[in-house]
Amino acid sequence: MILDEALNRLGQPDNPEDLFNTFSQLAQDLGYAAVSYIDSRPGPAPGEPDLFVRTTVREDFLHTYLSEGYMSHDPLMVMAKRQAAPLTWADVPEFHASLQAPSKLDMPARGRAKQDAQRAIAVMTSAADHGYTQGYVIPTHTVDPQGRLASAVVSLFWTQKPEGLISPDSAPAWLRLSALYFHERVVSMRLTPVTPPPTLTQREQEALVWASRGKTVEETGEIIGVSGRTVTFHLQNALEKLGCYSKIHAVAKAIQMGLIYP
């Protein structure tokens, strides 16, 4: 498969669920047994119900992963959040440690460091116990429609001989580019652009600024050289544009949106 064909297939779905299923099929065509997409932002954006997390891993592995709290100890997730380049499971020392006898491991002597190391190794051991022999992890980063960084981790699970994942046929260059496109489309589908702030006229801004400083409409009128009725007119227009119910509300919202600087 070439990049154009993969991008064309990913460009057809019109919702995140179908988009995830399409990417999963691309990965399956390469020999992968399962795919996970994990939104790694701290939390959902305003208006977004939740973070988008989907996986096709075995139910028993998923249950173990969640019930044991492995997410916070997963060495692959930790590394993927710190870099942009793809990695395989063999790139983390915990993967190699999981293949050794416990007595041969070079572990911290005691305390929290030892517990963290043990938990990280347990993540990789659990994956192997459920048939996953290797994996390919693609960190994805983009900017959402609100101008904020939006990152996710795309993980592909391998059940064949571990060395088979190293071949270009299993991890072609177009796979990473497809994962990035997949992530960008998920973000654009789930996060609609924020409505731009209204445009206030100079008089409307002045009326709000002086109101924020405690001036009455008559005092504001004297300052800017218009009648109190005209100031009220400009304030009412500003309230309507901002969708506010009172002068105090309008002043607070205008300051919050950066429309005035009292």
UniProtKB/TrEMBL annotation:
It comes from the Bacteria. Residues 193-258 form the HTH luxR-type domain. InterPro entries: Sig_transdc_resp-reg_C-effctor, TF_LuxR_autoind-bd_dom, TF_LuxR_autoind-bd_dom_sf, Tscrpt_reg_LuxR_C, WH-like_DNA-bd_sf. PANTHER family: DNA-BINDING TRANSCRIPTIONAL ACTIVATOR DEVR_DOSR. Keywords: DNA-binding, Transcription, Transcription regulation. SUPFAM superfamilies: C-terminal effector domain of the bipartite response regulators, Pheromone-binding domain of LuxR-like quorum-sensing transcription factors. Gene3D superfamilies: Transcription factor LuxR-like, autoinducer-binding domain, Winged helix-like DNA-binding domain superfamily/Winged helix DNA-binding domain. This is HTH luxR-type domain-containing protein. Pfam families: Autoind_bind, GerE. GO terms for molecular function: DNA binding. One of its GO terms (biological process) is regulation of DNA-templated transcription.
